[in-house]
Amino acid sequence: RKQCVKALLLWLGSQLASLLRLKVLSGSRTGKEGQVLHRSKRGWVWNQFFVIEEYTGPDPVLVGRLHSDVDAGDGNCKYILSGEGAGTIFVIDDKTGNIHATKTLDREEQAQYTLTAQAVDRATNKPLEPPSEFIVKVQDINDNPPEFLHGPYYARVPEMSNVGTSVMQVTATDADDPTYGNSARLVYSILQGQPYFSVEPQTGIIRTALPNMDREARQEYDVVIQAKDMGGHMGGLSGTTEVKITLTDVNDNPPKFPQSVYSMSVSEDKVSGEEVGRLKAKDPDLGENGLVSYRFIEGDGMTVFEITTDTDTREGVIKLRKPVDFETKRAYTLRVEASNTHVDPRFIAWGPYKDTATVKVMVEDADEPPAFLATSYSFEVEENAHDGTVVGRVHAKDTDVANNPVRYMIPRYTDVEQFFSVGPEDGIIKTTRPLDRETLPWHNISVSATEIGGHHQDTKVRVNIKVKDMNDNAPEFATQNEILVCENASPGKVISAVDKDEMAHRQYFHFSIAPEAVNNHNFSLKDNRDSTASIYVTRRGFSRMTQDVYFLPIEINDNGIPPMSSTNTLTIRVCSCDSKDTILSCNVEPYILPAGLSTGALIAILACIVILLAIVVLFVALRRQKKEPLIVFEEEDIRENIITYDDEGGGEEDTEAFDIATLQNPDGANGFLPRKDIKPELQYPMRPGGHPVANTVDVDDFIKTRINDADSDPTAPPYDSIQIYGYEGRGSIAGSLSSLESVTTDSDLDYDYLQSWGPRFKKLADLYAPPSS
């Protein structure tokens, strides 16, 4: 069929070419001189030729024929062709003027060619007429199929869309000439994707063809669209493209629990906030359309449990709101509701978008520590109560089913000084010694209860013990300040008292002058009955020169049960004042005596005399004693240190022959007491058995006794001192460093003089001196 069409077209072309010619009307020419030459004129010209594209015949295609009127047919006229494709695509017969196309032409590459033809003299190549321009048009045939330049295509459309919803538009192009025939007239059709989608034939718009397409059933569709030219008629060329259509999600599905009842368990030893279990309602929708929230709607455990939503897994997480107790309640039932958080109003009629399920939680038994009946205990105990006094009782029990016995104890870190004890079985707290409220009014301890058997778990409870006050402290002055009195006898002064014991309601202190000072003529006392008293001057004035300090003993009674009283000395100092009773000075001032020397000067002179006498006495004593100091100072050479005594001792075990206190404080032997700041008012008695009896007490015991005495002696230096005694007596582990054991060694020393030293050195004389002949 195609060959017949091409043959028909070639025949039509040859017929048209035979009709195309150039008719040139030429004027007369005279070769004679003097005659005017007239310009040749063309009678008519065809300026357009046509050639069929894609010709594949064996012979060149005849495009057309040029002919000039000046051509007489004698062969003297020559035709020349120039322009686009001349000589390569188009050739001309220079004798006949026939133009042929030697190559196959493609209109889509070049639609027309512009050429120029001219007739010249064959002999001289002179133009016989002016050149003539004409156009050769390539005539289109349907040789290009439609093409989709942007395929494949991807489109999205919401699920459950109505029929006819536009999905997208596809467009194809055809390279053929749209102005010639139906070669470029396209018609669209769908080859794959029915019955879900359709396409409009003229526009290429793809639309939905079925209602209620569900994404959860099928999400993607592959659609094939065809574009065909020639208006879709038979013989037209076609092209196809693929369109991948995806259904997007909408919230058209409610959440759904896979099962109606869920079973969970939780141990009673779990604390608040711990997870009990999880459940999930399935929603096939995506994104926010599939978000689910959970809540309890009913049940007996709504106050015990809570439920939250895990945003990552979309699960409902059930947690403990407060601890559970196996012995109290062993099972809970809850009703859980799962619902969508975002509901599409277009599909609200398809609801409800929620579902419910039942959750049963079983409580598991755990070995729990004992539990006290109270969260804390508070007791009171009398001050100074004897040891073993009952303070109170704590009670704990094992809450487990086994109900194991409980043992009690007091952790030592809560009662470091061990004031209390607790019965291990009955939990009764007792005192271990008398308590002093003034030292520690409250004792805060802990009692631990441990389960006997099982895992030996324990628990602790706080016990606060208040020491009740007992009137065991006498009252005393609130302050120990002196009272200042002007020489011109200013009136009364108020004093107050304080008691370490607690004051009862309406209890106050009673003041009175001590009996030994009742008859004094200087001061009187008035009890104000409000725990204060006023001191009044009973004489007209005072003289500092006569007496500047007065001591007034005052007795204070607290009226407690039993009543306590004390005598306190009130110091009253006489001061010099001005006319407005403003104190000027209370210090001791010199007074002028008739001899011309003040009291201060006399005291200074006497002090100097006493110091000189003391120096003389000390010097004489040192000269008589001639003793070297027993303390080795830093500048002395300790390797060759010889200590000389002027008396005879009884040996190393004789501790009565010398004063061992000299070793404790060698400086004191010389009359110098280093850093003796304050002499204590109270002298501590010596410990019983302080002086060992010679030859009856071990020196080691003697040393320990002296160390204890030195530690408790307030007159000792205020720094730590180390006292070392190199004892070599009986039973010494270190052995002896004495030369007494060297009797077996050869020596050139003469010990005869030991015989004349007396009975105290008889032992040494027997060991070292040779026997008298």
UniProtKB/TrEMBL annotation:
PROSITE patterns with a match to the protein in the record: CADHERIN_1 (PS00232), CADHERIN_2 (PS50268)
What Gene Ontology terms describe what this protein does at the molecular function level? beta-catenin binding; cadherin binding; calcium ion binding
Keyword Zinc-finger carried by entry: no
> Where does the signal peptide begin and end?
1-19
Gene Ontology CC terms, in alphabetical order? adherens junction; catenin complex
Q: Which domain of life is it from?
A: Eukaryota
For this protein, the record's InterPro entries field holds: Cadherin, Cadherin-like_dom, Cadherin-like_sf, Cadherin_CS, Cadherin_Y-type_LIR, Catenin-bd_sf
What's the protein name?
Cadherin 11, type 2, OB-cadherin (osteoblast)
Organism whose genome encodes this protein: Oncorhynchus mykiss (Rainbow trout)
Which lineage is the organism of this entry classified under, starting from the top rank? Eukaryota, Metazoa, Chordata, Craniata, Vertebrata
Q: Which gene encodes it?
A: cdh11
